[in-house]
Amino acid sequence: MFLLGFLWILLASKTANGQTTQNINVIFVNEEDNTVADKAINVVMNYIKKTTKLGLSVDIKRVVGNRTDSQNILDSLCATYQQMLDSNVSPHLVLDATRAGLASETVKSFTSALGLPTVSASYGQQGDLRQWRSIQPNEEEYLVQISPPGDIIPEMVRTLVLNQNITNAAILYDDTFIMDHKYKALLQNVATRHLIDEINQDPSKIPEQLDSLVKLDLKNFFVLGDLHTIQTVLEAADLKKLFNRMYAWHVMTKDAGDIKASVPNATVLFAKPLVNTQYQDRLRNIGNAYQLSNVLPEIDGAFYFDLALKAFLAIKEMLLDGSWKRNNVTNFVTCDDYEPKNSPKRFNLNLRSYLQKESLEPPTYGPFSITTNGLSYMEFSMALTAVYVRSSSSDKSLSLGVWQAGFDNNLTLTTPKDMKNYTVDVVYRVVTVVQKPFIYRDDDLPKKFKGYCIDLIDEIANILHFDYEIVEVGDGQFGNMDENGNWNGIIKDLIDKKADIGLGSLSVMAERENVIDFTVPYYDLVGITILMKLPETPTSLFKFLTVLENEVWLCILAAYFFTSFLMWVFDRWSPYSYQNNREKYKDDEEKREFNLKECLWFCMTSLTPQGGGEAPKNLSGRLVAATWWLFGFIIIASYTANLAAFLTVSRLDTPIESLDDLSKQYKIQYAPVNSSSTMTYFQRMADIEGRFYEIWKDMSLNDSLSDVERAKLAVWDYPVSDKYTKMWQAMKEAGLPENLEVALNRVRESKSSSEGFAYLGDATDIRYLEATSCDLIIVGEEFSRKPYAIAVQQGSPLKDQFNTAILQLLNRRELERLKEKWWNKNPEKKQCEKVDDQQDGISIQNIGGVFIVIFVGIGLACVTLAFEYWWYKYRKNSSVTNVIKQVSKPQHKGLDFPNQETGGWIKNDEGELALKPGKLYIKPRH
Q1: Chain mean position to CA 742
Q2: CA–CA separation, 796 vs 793, rounded Å?
Q3: What is the 3-state secondary structure (H, E, C) of 451-474?
Q4: For the ranges 136-140, 249-253, 609-613, 689-693, the one whose mean pLDDT is highest
Q5: Given CA atoms 225, 228, 232, 237 in this order, what sign does their dihedral have?
Q6: 3-state DSSP call for residue 290?
Q7: Are 532 and 661 in contact (CB under 8 A)?
Q8: For the chain, percent of residues with pLDDT exceeding 90
Q9: What is the model's pLDDT at position 885?
Q10: CB atoms within 10 A of CB 262
Q11: CA 123 – CA 234 distance, rounded (Å)
Q12: What is the pLDDT at residue 132?
């Protein structure tokens, strides 16, 4: 085989007009619909034939296949390759014009397996070339891929997005561009919510397609296609009224013409290839002389022409330099004989280095930048202009700058400030969940929301100079992962790139950080705590009467009346009492006659600090009084002590003080909100306890353990607590509330602090509920503490920008100011009477009955006074008048009346005669 190859090389060289002509054999592989490459190869072949100075003769074998039919193209390749080997004509080069899909991958697999030098014009960057992804360094020397212009032009989208700080984008393309591999990589690590979609081939459905993109809040449109497709899309956009300051339009094409569209008024940023003045004469000459100008788009035709010619000349130079002979490139393996172990190894066959050399033939469009596969391309420029379409024609255009083709290349702008006139405002889409005081709903405000987080994002926006639109997430959830790994809530919107920022009291969790990014925390560590109904101390105005039972009060009353009656009896019948010894005690100061009224008064006053007054004279009466005093002392002392203890115990009703207390009782149900982070915590803690138990059980029942090892595991009881397992079971039995409002209603409907429902949730939510309600109380300390942070898309540069802004606010103490504003100075905060304040003394609700007793006594005294006045005025006067009538003249004719001046008669205020005081005495009856 080596000898045949060497002879073939010698015979392949011939002399024509003194010029050495090198014959090379090429397999040209193409797709069925890639007519541009096919026409360009024809132009190259014609150019080589007519340009004898090249000293080159190319024998080309064509293989054409379908993008989706890998088996057919593989069979065609193997058949062509086998035919060449059978004719003792080995291929020097495989020129691959397949662009993407199964056909392209099949060609790469074929050439790498058989060790055939290849120049590929397929689409894709390093990670996209799957069959060449893990080739060896020596294979990279002869397996070369150079991206066509259609693979580089979409990179301009990334440049414009970064240059204009675009936050959302709809990228549309037609069949002149291949974007399959761009879905993930085009805007990777860029904080832009975007969607890449192929333009509908039915023009009547394009307006509907644009409408669906608008519903996703995409306002920056990028259209990549030929001029006809661009015209169709722009006319559909005008039909949907999408040409205003709320939308920005960018169109890119490989065509060399201008925009034409039946649009009355539109401004579009238009990018098209710009011919390098250095090579435009050669392009015009080749185009006119060899009909390259008929191969459209012009940039694609020139690319394939230059690539094929450069590759052929590089192979010629390698043959002349003896690279094939030095590297023994004669060991070809057929498709039938191929096995991985006998794959040909090519060393020092450095086709890439020959392609990197400057060719004698200048390029027709632009030079090639050849480095590694996926990063090699033809250098060209794209002219960026602002096109004003008025009355269905291009009114004028303004040159804005030039973009040099490449990866991560920036724009060279004529006037950078002019770009701001053709963009929509920098607006980020924010999703949130209403959670006071962090987020309030307020339809009267421009943003429809207010709260701690709204003030925070406003401060950040002032620092970073952006605007935002905020919406409430549809399902009202912050974000949890189900058993299938699917997310909901804010996290899902960030993963699906439906939002740029997740704002609210969002806890930083490990599983969330796997799919999104968090900024530095903006709030302290927040844990879980317990919310319960505030214990209601029972109050009664006559609480002092409830210290003793009713039976005791009746017995005291009966003892009072009995003792009073007994004292009256003893004083009445005792020979030593005052009333029976008036003469004996006539000189004593104490002259108290213990009639029944005086006995009742004496016993009553004996129960007061004032005392009972004069004691009975008789010894028996005094014994009764002393007994009553002893009885009264004991009753009053017992009542006073029990009253203080009774009022104190009624204020110390605190049945639950911690999570452990809650877990050890059964009267109070408890649960967190369904699908909340708190629920996730208890569920996972219960799962962990279950797993620990299974591990311990497997260890203790392991028959392979020695007696010593088994003895170390021998315990009577399971050594790990199952607290959370029991609590999680109790929560499921109690039923998890669907939202915070339901949980709050269940707490307030509790019968008492020792029977009802307790809610477990984030401490900030519970602290706010306690601050705005006077019937709720926080119980226990916080546990499972986590920080709050702002969420962004994974890989978003907003993370670093927001980190810087939050740290600035922290240094300026703005975060403390916001906390003071929305917690301590919150207008919804209520000034409630604290439980601690109630324990400082006896409240009026419990002792007020004493004042009622005073008022009742005063009322009875007033009634008594009135009665006494009536009695004295009417009853007494009537008695005196009767006495006077008995001694008047008509009745005692022999009695002379004294005159008014000297005698005992006077006139009263009413003009009637009355007896002067001291003139008439009536002896009392004994």
Answers
A1: 21
A2: 5
A3: CHHHHHHHHHHHHHCCEEEEEECC
A4: 249-253
A5: positive
A6: helix
A7: no
A8: 40
A9: 53
A10: 12
A11: 27
A12: 93
Per the CB < 8 A criterion, the answer to whether 118 and 129 are in contact is no
CA distance 219 to 229: 20
Q: Residue 676: which of 748, 736, 601, 722 has the closest Cα?
A: 736
Coil vs helix vs strand at 372: coil
Residue 766 buriedness (CB in 10 A; 0-12 / 13-18 / 19+)? buried
Please provide the size of the chain in residues.
926
DSSP letters for 640-706: HHHHHHHHHHTT------SHHHHHT-SSEEEE--TTSHHHHHHHHHHHHHHHHHHHHHHHHT-TTS-
Q: Which amino acid type is present at position 649?
A: V
Task: Give the phi and the psi of residue 884 in degrees, each rounded to 5.
Answer: -65, -40
Q: Are 748 and 737 in contact (CB under 8 A)?
A: no
In angstroms, rounded to a whole number, what is the distance separating the alpha carbons of residues 304 and 880?
Answer: 147
Give strand pairing partners of 145: 120
Query: What crossing angle do the helices spanning 206-215 and 227-239 adopt, rounded to 10°?
Result: 60
Provide the token pair at 90. Answer: 């080995």
In whole angstroms, what is the distance from residue 101 CA to residue 65 CA?
Answer: 11
881 alpha-carbon distance from chain centroid:
99
Structure-token pair, residue 533 = 């109904």
Lowest mean pLDDT among 60-64, 137-141, 420-424, 812-816: 420-424
- Among residues 794, 792, 812, the alpha carbon closest in space to that of 802 is found at 792
List all residues 6 or more positions away from 172 whose beta carbon is below 8 Å from its beta carbon.
Answer: 197, 198, 199, 209, 221, 222, 223, 224, 225, 233
Which stretches does DSSP call E strand in 110-211? Answer: 118-120, 143-145, 168-173, 193-198
Residue 189 contacts by C-beta under 8 Å, 6 or more apart in sequence?
795, 796, 797
CA torsion 275-277-279-282 (nearest 10°) is: 90
**CB-side neighbour CA atoms (13 Å) of 903:** 13
520-535, pLDDT tens digit by residue? 999 988 899 998 888 7
Whole-angstrom Cα distance, residue 261 to residue 672?
59
Q: What is the pLDDT of residue 921?
A: 41
DSSP-assigned states of every residue in 495-552: HTTS-SEEESSPBP-HHHHTTEEE-S-SEEEEEEEEEEEPP-----TTGGGTTS-HHH
Question: What DSSP line would sit under 202-242, residue for residue?
Answer: SGGGHHHHHHHHHHTT--EEEEES-HHHHHHHHHHHHHTT-
The vertex-909 CA angle with 908 and 915, nearest 5°, equals 10
749 close to 741: Cβ distance less than 8 angstroms? no
Closest to 377 in 3D by CA, of 357, 358, 404, 401: 404
Residue 828's alpha-carbon distances to 436, 529, 770, 819, in angstroms, are 10, 22, 11, 14
- The answer on pLDDT for 730 being more than 60 is yes
DSSP sequence for 816-847? HHHHIIIIIT-TT---PPPHHHHTTS--HHHH
pLDDT in tens, 374-395: 999 999 999 999 999 887 677 7
Q: How far from 813 is each of 480, 820, 846, CA to CA, in Å?
A: 33, 11, 47
Q: How confident is the model over 871-881, as pLDDT tens digits?
A: 777 765 665 55
CB-CB contact of 119 with 351 (8 Å): yes
Which three-class secondary structure state does DSSP give residue 275? coil
Alpha carbon distance 469, 454 (integer Å): 11
| Closest among 248, 191, 197, 244 to 430, alpha carbons compared | 191
